[in-house]
Amino acid sequence: MDRGKNVASNSSGSYREFTKWTTEMNLILLNAMIDEVRKRCRIDGSWTTQGYINIFMALNEVGLSGIKKNNVKNCQKSLKDRWREVHDMFGGLSGFAWNQTTKRFEAEDEVWSELIKAKPSTTKWRVNPIPHYDLMEELLSNDRATGSRVRTTRDINSPPDMSNFSMTSSSQKRHKTRKGKEPAEGHAVNPPPATGIEEVLDYSRYFTSKRKMMVFEKMFHGRPIITPKAMHSPFFVAPGFEFQKLLNFQYLQPFLGMKLPYYEELVRVFYTNLKITPLCELAIEICGKRIHTNEMDWMNIADLRYGDVKLTPGTIPEECNFDRALALSNASSLTMNDRLLHYIWVHMLCPRGSNFAQVLNEDIFMLWCKKNNIMINWPHYIMQHMMKCRDNNMSLPYAILITRILQVYGFDLENEQAVMLGWNHYFAKKSMTKLNIF
């Protein structure tokens, strides 16, 4: 979805009109727009003033502060043109099903062959993924659907209607005349197998109800996992790496140094079932087993202290006496140790899926807290960040920590598909090279 109106940052922090919208930026914009649709800020296909304001606020939160209204309009038009092309091609075709994992419409070989023979231009859709098509479908389909064609949000994941097989345009079904013998009357034509997740993959061992499994299918199956990082502490014992003292003061070294494999599907299952109790305790049920953490459990899990200042992502409490103006002036000239602290923040303590080089207001505040030895309640912050990512369709963080939680609570991981840590998972010398420090 990189085609269309382009946006990128220039040296002054503003955005030029003819620079490129990335796939990640499209994802951020689509999620922001869908949130506003759910708040009824889109009426008859047009955004309300408040809707636009909220969209820009969502973009600002991830560092896209220079995008203008025309940039958003042009990007939306580009996305809509691409969606319309694909939707009109597959919307009324039987035999095709959307695969959320591969991001493609899939069908039997003979079905594809017949379609390509009729419309050679569709060949590209057999091999090329269509990023964020499910989000575009949710956002745009109701703008023009009427009567029997109206689809509810996220219906794109449901199997298509197989009753009338047609290989023509979705906007008007035409029945082809066929040469040769017709099937004998009463002869049953077997429909393609169901594509629901419970029919394709065995996730029943993870969930105690079909409802939870369907939530997983619609909201979490295929959701990106943020590549976890583990700190290689021995590399940073050399003189000059003073940032380690600040981490030691916060008792973060055991958490940052966890080196465990992770399990992508279990991470998604974990977030599907994740809840935070009114007492701010983690509560999860997986495979019929319950996880319920209390304050002391965090010591056993990652040697993290549950106490001190409770912070919520995106907020700055007044009692911290944070001097934003002074902190911003200092942020313009970050030292090497500041940059290393920021790297740890965006990749390990509060992982995000993109914009790693952007220093956001919250980043500045958290750097200020660590440099001023303000003790932070890290278990509380981590749980809040988990819920933020879970509920806002963001990439899922803390994969290694989730492995550790499952280990502590006695889950058998032997038969699960593990991702072993490689060089790209470690914060060490190669990371310094990427930061242009070495």
UniProtKB/TrEMBL annotation:
InterPro entries associated with the record: Myb/SANT-like_dom
Region (Disordered): 144-193
Biased segments, Polar residues type: 160-171
Record domain Myb/SANT-like: where: 20-114
Entry-linked PANTHER family: EXPRESSED PROTEIN, MYB_SANT-LIKE DOMAIN-CONTAINING PROTEIN
Protein name: Myb/SANT-like domain-containing protein
